[in-house]
Amino acid sequence: ASLGGKGRVLVRVSGTEPVVRVMIEGEEPAKVERLARDIALVIEKELG
Description:
alpha+beta; isomerase; A-D-PHexomutase_C; two-stranded antiparallel ribbon; Phosphoglucosamine mutase; 2 strands; EC 5.4.2.10; A-D-PHexomutase_C_sf
């Protein structure tokens, strides 16, 4: 999913707990949700 240059994505690993935070802003909620799911799947696959 692409935000078409009208949004932003921040992925941040916590330094104090086993957590990865994914923050996404965009104009179309459906695209934001889809992108969040896609990123979460990659993180879960790669980090377990």
